[in-house]
Recover the amino acids of this structure.
């Protein structure tokens, strides 16, 4: 299972989110973002055809991310909201497929995580 995690600014549109997902690889079985962001009109419109996981902000604090944004660290106590949401939603055996990518308009980020079954070293 692949989870797409998203971080995004208030001005992001559904197209911002679609573009970020496309740049990340384009395929996901579910999408995840912070619980307070999941209620945004743009995210709801984008995510209408996906299973959505709403991640609690406190769940991000212990998640190690591949990239580090000063803004994310200051506001959300994580290096990357997109990476941390993808990993948190995918569960304890998840791994990032690649670092976060940024949409063309720089309003959304997306990272993909894959669930790795326990004991699988691939």
């Amino acid at each position: 299972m692949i989870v797409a995690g998203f971080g995004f600014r208030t001005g992001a549109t559904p197209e911002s989110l679609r573009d970020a997902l496309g740049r990340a690889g384009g395929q996901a079985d579910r999408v995840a973002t912070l619980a307070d962001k999941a209620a945004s009109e743009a995210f709801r419109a984008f995510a209408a055809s996906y299973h959505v996981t709403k991640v609690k902000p406190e769940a991000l604090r212990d998640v190690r991310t591949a990239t580090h944004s000063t803004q994310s660290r200051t506001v959300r106590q994580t290096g990357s909201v997109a990476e941390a949401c993808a990993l948190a939603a995918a569960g304890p055996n998840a791994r990032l497929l690649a670092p976060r990518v940024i949409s063309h308009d720089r309003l959304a980020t997306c990272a993909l995580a894959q669930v790795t079954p326990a004991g699988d070293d691939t």
Notes: DSSP finds five helices and six strands in the chain. Strands lie at 2-8, 30-34, 51-55, 94-96, 101-102, 108-115. The chain has a mean pLDDT of 89.
